[in-house]
Amino acid sequence: MSNAMWGGRYASGPAAVMEDINVSIDFDQRLYRQDIAGSKAHAAMLRAQRIVSAADEAAIQKGLDQVLAEIEGGTFTFKRNLEDIHMNVEARLAEIIGAPAGRLHTARSRNDQVATDFKLWVRDAADGLDAQLKDLQRALAEKALAEAATVMPGFTHLQVAQPTTFGHHLMAYVEMVGRDRGRLQDARRRLNESPLGAAALCGTSFPIDRQATAEALGFDRPTANSLDSVADRDFVMETLAAATIAAVHLSRLAEEIVIWCSSPFSFVRLSDAFSTGSSIMPQKRNPDAAELVRAKVGRVLGGFTAIVVVLKGLPLTYQKDMQEDKEPTMDALASLSLAIAAAAGMVRDMTANAAVMKKAAGQGYSTATDLADWCVRVLDIPFRDSHHIAAKCVGIASAKGVPLHKLDLTDLQSVDKRITEDVFSVLSVGRSVASRVSYGGTAPKNVRAQARRWLKKLAD
Ligand code: ARG
């Protein structure tokens, strides 16, 4: 049987494989809410512009409400021979209300319809991700406030570099996630123009009101070029690019959680709620959730890569290739959503092992910079010379097998006789972190101020 919607000139139906490759209802049925909202806005506009009668429009609205109720109630049968969500909805509408259903598709096409539906879907998804990322920021900032003075090693090259605090470290992620949200919000702003009314590609001769449908659907304005309207998928690329960067950030946090939980580190403990056991090694507590958050970026980047490759070199305007935009996008954004939820859960769940962190912070002569800075500040020695003095002191401490703050004053004075007792005021890790009061620095009072500033911002 040929297609009821467009098969007027077709004697037979598609080959089985043609149906298999052409059909999108298996995944685009998830656009039903957006599709029906778009149709309702379009129908209302057609009536206001006197393109369809009030009676027909009323029937269409009522019928669409019923279709929505049937889908949400699980009684709707999606049909593969109707290809996609647009034709499934319209065909069911025709069954319910009869002839007036045929007027709904006046002055539109599936090309502007699918662009509208998918923009609305991506917009909803981006809003959901933003709310989740905000929750993750809150979890991080709350933990940071509690751990503002918990000394831990700060690393460069994964070598102990300078003492920092666990709170300061967590606040670094609050900043990163803040930028991730900014990118998603930015993409949303550019996305928020309505393609509805571009019709197949060249607009329409009917006196439609695109401003009205744009407003009804929460868009800022209609798109200005009909060809661009149906050909544009950069709203997908841009959202997935932003999602990829967010997923990369989550993978860095996840990797750190894996490291912190490993027994040589033991900086952090996850409760049973976020740990899994091994079926062979009874002692194991594995941070599986962190590992999976670390891995999810593969699917997010995979989705981004897929859509970019589909669009590369694609001539204007709509091409069926673009139907391949949905599955990767839906999978990528669902993966990111799950990863954010798991990350927020782990951050709230984890407890810091302050004693172990503090001990590790003192290893590797992490206050050597503080010693050099002291020589500059108190003795007015140029930093490059102070650096040499501190390095020599590290050499002595290393030979004696003691941390810097356990050296005798005479040891320090053997390097430079101007060094006084006062130097010990900066050599312990606690003193070191407390002294780093420069804006954005690691001092606990800075960390508390930053955490409070963010928590206030995140409260509304
Ligand atoms: N299922 C199609 C898609 O996702 C809808 C648009 C089809 N338009 C067309 N003229 N065949 O892209």
UniProtKB/TrEMBL annotation:
<keyword id="KW-0028">Amino-acid biosynthesis</keyword>
<dbReference type="GO" id="GO:0004056">
    <property type="term" value="F:argininosuccinate lyase activity"/>
</dbReference>
<dbReference type="InterPro" id="IPR022761">
    <property type="entry name" value="Fumarate_lyase_N"/>
</dbReference>
<dbReference type="Pfam" id="PF14698">
    <property type="entry name" value="ASL_C2"/>
</dbReference>
<keyword id="KW-0456">Lyase</keyword>
<comment type="pathway">
    <text>Amino-acid biosynthesis; L-arginine biosynthesis; L-arginine from L-ornithine and carbamoyl phosphate: step 3/3.</text>
</comment>
<dbReference type="InterPro" id="IPR000362">
    <property type="entry name" value="Fumarate_lyase_fam"/>
</dbReference>
<dbReference type="Pfam" id="PF00206">
    <property type="entry name" value="Lyase_1"/>
</dbReference>
<dbReference type="InterPro" id="IPR024083">
    <property type="entry name" value="Fumarase/histidase_N"/>
</dbReference>
<dbReference type="InterPro" id="IPR029419">
    <property type="entry name" value="Arg_succ_lyase_C"/>
</dbReference>
<keyword id="KW-0963">Cytoplasm</keyword>
<dbReference type="InterPro" id="IPR009049">
    <property type="entry name" value="Argininosuccinate_lyase"/>
</dbReference>
<comment type="similarity">
    <text>Belongs to the lyase 1 family. Argininosuccinate lyase subfamily.</text>
</comment>
<keyword id="KW-0055">Arginine biosynthesis</keyword>
<dbReference type="InterPro" id="IPR020557">
    <property type="entry name" value="Fumarate_lyase_CS"/>
</dbReference>
<protein>
    <recommendedName>
        <fullName>Argininosuccinate lyase</fullName>
        <ecNumber>4.3.2.1</ecNumber>
    </recommendedName>
</protein>
<dbReference type="GO" id="GO:0005829">
    <property type="term" value="C:cytosol"/>
</dbReference>
<feature type="domain" description="Argininosuccinate lyase C-terminal">
    <location>
        <begin position="365"/>
        <end position="434"/>
    </location>
</feature>
<dbReference type="GO" id="GO:0042450">
    <property type="term" value="P:L-arginine biosynthetic process via ornithine"/>
</dbReference>
<feature type="domain" description="Fumarate lyase N-terminal">
    <location>
        <begin position="10"/>
        <end position="302"/>
    </location>
</feature>
<dbReference type="InterPro" id="IPR008948">
    <property type="entry name" value="L-Aspartase-like"/>
</dbReference>
